[in-house]
Amino acid sequence: MKKVSVRDRILDISVNLARIGNWSADSYQQKEKLIKYFLDQTGVYINEVKQAQLSSDVKPVFSHFIIEFQKLKQEKVSNKNKDWWAERALTWANILQHRAQLA
């Protein structure tokens, strides 16, 4: 099996965050189990990227993202915070999508 590049793995994280963000805002209660699944999967992907050699353009952003992702996971999505939570997830999806090109 072919090893996934760091760039592609960062893009995987970005796509997961976009999915999670959209589900959180639009259909949190129906997608709660999927949100948890993709948060867990994203955590695995983050650990893979942390093991890789990152460019100086990506490393500080990814390090900051890790801190913010942990905050999102700890906060959990609820009906009360779902829009704000989704906004942060979607923002990071966008940031990582652009930074992946520099990985």
What portion of the residues fall into strands of 2 or more residues? under 5%
Mean pLDDT score: 93
The number of distinct β-strands equals 0
- Return the string of H and E elements: HHH
Radius of gyration: 13 Å
Global shape: globular
Structural class: mainly alpha
Given the structure, what is the number of helices? Answer: 3
Low confidence ranges = none
Helix share bin: over 70%
Total domain units:
1
| Biggest sheet overview | none
**Cα end-to-end separation:** 22 Å
Key phrases:
3 helices, globular, single chain, mainly alpha, 103 residues
Give a summary of the structure in a few sentences.
Helices cover 79% and strands 0% of the residues. It is mainly α and 103 residues long.
